[in-house]
Amino acid sequence: MRIDLHAHSNASDGTDTPAELVAAAVAAGLDVVALTDHDTVSGYPAAIAAVQALPAGRRLTLVPGAELSCRVDGISMHLLAYLFDPEEPAFAQERELTRTDRFRRARLVVERCQELGAPITWEQVERIAQAGSVGRPHIASALVEAGVVATVSDAFSSDWLADRGRADVPKHETDPFEAVKLVRAAGGVPVFAHPGAVKRGRTVSDQVIGELAAAGLGGLEVDHIDHDEPTRARLRALAAELGLFTTGSSDYHGSRKTVRLGEFTTAPQDYQALLDQATGARPIVG
Ligand code: AMP
Ligand code: FE
Ligand code: FE
Ligand code: ZN
Known about the structure:
Helix content is 39%, strand content 15%. The mean pLDDT is 97. One fe (iii) ion (FE) binds next to loops.
């Protein structure tokens, strides 16, 4: 079983349509893929239709999810949520609030870039983001198009879009204790995404991870491109101590990042632990 529990479509900052993501998952030889767009479920209908339309003999299970923007003690962090009821109103409202604020913030980030001399426009970012949940990676693509930086990754420097970088503007981010509650109340399972990704900025302490576990966190994403081997070992030990399952995933963003779909995967027993905790929705088996 090859299980990748973290992937983005162009419903947020990935570059594949949801249908293309499903096709890419089949091509990568995955048995299970989770769709985890930032603060949105708008990719679900197209992804579900694509899985259900797969030809006989091409099996793929789709785990519907999302990746929530959170902040605790001034530290930005991401919370993956799986198999929640997408209609549950309190959680749906929080995702909507974050998405709406992403537009306000993205306009300000574009203005900051312009003030810093980058010849990009809001219209350009709108075209790149299309109807997706707009974020810094879309603005990074605009900076690449304009020749300001060579790659999306280069745009995440302190000169431009990095957390607290010259052009960064904060957006609404949910308190993760509140987010864990919202996800559980919607029948979903919360997993801390890339908790040791130091290249993205400060990371959350083990003590806060322990408190989140006590508040209902289900798992830690351990095998991730942004974690080195010592970080993985440390997180695996912490998860065992706290009774959390661990996941591995690519955090695929199509051509916006270099990681390949299925480059990191989740063990079947950890996937089973996730399924056992979910009551809000079931995976879609194609
Ligand atoms: P936003 O959601 O608009 O705050 O932007 C955060 C997104 O930017 C993350 O989900 C990643 O896709 C991307 N990102 C953050 N840090 C980096 C980095 N250092 N290099 C490349 N992409 C990054
Ligand atoms: Fe992203
Ligand atoms: Fe993330
Ligand atoms: Zn992600």
